[in-house]
Amino acid sequence: MTTAKQNGLGLCPKCHKVNKIESEPQQCSRCHGWFYPRKRNSIQYTLAWNIAALLSFIPANLYPIMIIYSLGIGDESTILSGIGQFVDQGLYPIAVIIFTASIIVPLVKIAGLFLLVYKVQTGVRLKPDKHSKLYHVLEFLGPWSMLDVFVVALLVAVVELGIITSVAAGPAINYFTLTVIFTMIAANSFDPRLLWDKKEINDDMFKGKQ
Predict the structure, then answer these.
(1) At 46, which CATH number?
(2) CB of 155 closer than 8 Å to CB of 168
(3) Which helix (H) or strand (E) holds 18?
(4) Residue 206's pLDDT is what?
(5) Predicted local distance difference test score (pLDDT) of residue 208
(6) How many whole angstroms separate alpha carbon 164 and alpha carbon 150?
(7) Which member of 2, 83, 163, 183 has the lowest number of beta carbons within 10 Å of its beta carbon?
(8) Which residue from 96, 98, 110, 78 is spatially nearest to 178, judged by alpha carbons?
(9) How many CB atoms lie within 10 A of CB 179?
């Protein structure tokens, strides 16, 4: 089965018209906008933003994410220590939400994007259908990473109920927000069609050996 790229065709991202690719960049015959058959420097941008997300993720876990004041005494909590405090207080749902949104989701996104970049660069036994599904899962997880910020808002509501004296957001919130933003940009920078391009190259090489 041939692909659009093999037939010299490309989809305009603005008006979604299929054009005959004669140059790069190509001008759309309908909207006259310029576009490339593939996202330019997709791998480089994805790798750069993903590394930035990983670097932001480190201080997000080292610095306090919230400061709980009880009777005027402040108690700083990192993500992990905060999870432990919620477990000790029996607030298991909040602990699960924070652990999932702050630890599991960012690590899965960062590791998944590194894996996709590695597969595209090496082209070792790619299974593009499965990797495309992985990409869509990573893209879907992006907004849900902000659950941790919503938890802080939830704690403010708890304060108003008088359960805790006072709660303030720590500096880790800023780094965590950057981590979420960087991973979303990295996922958006990655062009999943590159996985299929590699498959085409591998198939052609395999046919040539026969």
Answers:
(1) 1.20.140
(2) no
(3) strand 18-20
(4) 35
(5) 42
(6) 17
(7) 2
(8) 110
(9) 28
One-letter amino acid at 30 equals R
Q: How many domains does the chain have?
A: 2
pLDDT in tens, 77-135: 788 887 887 788 787 887 887 788 888 888 888 998 898 888 888 765 556 566 667 77
Which residues in the chain show pLDDT less than 50? 1, 160-161, 201-210
Identify the domain containing residue 18 by its residue range: 1-37
What are the Cα distances from residue 71, in Å, to 51, 88, 164? Answer: 41, 19, 9
Does the reported pTM lie above 0.85?
no
- Spell out the residues 6+ positions from residue 1 whose beta carbon is closer than 8 angstroms to its own: none
3-state helix, strand, coil in the chain (%, to 5): 60, 10, 25
- Residue 70 shares a structural domain with residue 141: yes
Identify residue 176 by its one-letter amino acid code.
F
**Which amino acid does the sequence have at 48?**
A
CA distances from 36 to 66, 166, 179, 203 (A): 45, 53, 29, 24
